[in-house]
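Practice record 12: protein with beta-D-galactopyranose.
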Amino acid sequence: MTMMKKLKMTAAVLALSTTSVVAQEVEVLHWWTSGGEAAALNVLRENLAEGGVGWTDMPVAGGGGSDAMTILRARVSAGDPPTAVQMLGFSIQDWAAEGSLANLNALAEEQNWDEVVPEALQRFSTYEGDWVAAPVNVHSVNWVWANTALMEELGLEQPESWEEFVAAMEAAQDAGYTALAHGGQAWQEATVFDSMVMGVGGPEFYQDSMIDLDPDALGSDMMVEAFERMDTLRGFVDDNFSGRDWNLASSMVINGESLFQIMGDWAKGEFVNAGLTAGDEFQCFRVPGTEGTVMFNSDQFAMFEVSDDSAQEAQLAMASAVMSPDFQVAFNMVKGSVPARTDIPSDDFDACGQLGMAQLAEASANGTLFGSMAHGHANNPSVQNAMYDVITAHFNGEFDAETAAEELVLAVELAQ
Ligand code: GAL
């Protein structure tokens, strides 16, 4: 970023704090299209509207955001980037490396982001020391969502080991229910796979395989076992799983058709949106085998470089709104995630939110907090996509577990 651009952004921050309402507008590209996600997005949209910032919606459906990223690339190539973009982990770094993102340092300094945003998130929100994105939340993927009434009907306690988890699903299946609600899309399989890798091999194995991409770990017996666990799960999904959206899988647990769903805590947004209460009508617990660890992803808003002054002011107004403590509470209670700031009390959150906040802090202190491969926080998008391909091909019966581990080694090697 040139000195001139930096000065302009600083001037815009000053304008933000001193002027009253001006005609500002943000165009926001995002993939928050499910009921719970849309409700959360509305919290942001209304917050901005109160500050006089208009909203042009650019939704691109598709959990995990791959489709949104494809559209983004096309928009940028056409010389027409949206002003603000929902973005995950390594994608933020890639766009920053291309020099496409605005520098938010002046606002970050004024609002002390350095102090309040957890290190694990700053690693993605900053590029070469400059703030390039505002984190709105922290999600984590290693959750099971369970229907309480069904658990009671089947006489089930919360499973505490992989074996108990499998036994619970057997009980549900035997009773004629769909044991595991699942949507057959590559990113959903990858989301589940994160927890299988951690569950089988623990933190060191997750680090070696998913983050450091060590070929020995990727092709190891433990990886074969992770794929075998995917085979086990495959035996508990219904016949119509293929292509199903994740929120429709959540609905199956919500309406009592299905016992469990393994999904990130955006699923909680669906339960809450359906009027259900955490710890009462539905339960949340960590995927058995992954207790004590948290595999996270953080939605951030990256601001694309724009030349128009009022668009720059709107970007800063949005970044400022996103980082405000009150907003972080209001938004994350609806979204199912937890705040991207360390200074927010958990009192207003429901049982799952409070658990999530406590576990995030614990994992961060214990060195057991890891970026989710499935959601772009473990490795770059090309490696991530290569992993998606193998995981989903295996889940759909193309490879057995042993071949899948071999294919994973090859795919990752080629993608680097
Ligand atoms: C994740 C995103 C979440 C949630 C989910 C499903 O990648 O971080 O906010 O929206 O996709 O759409």
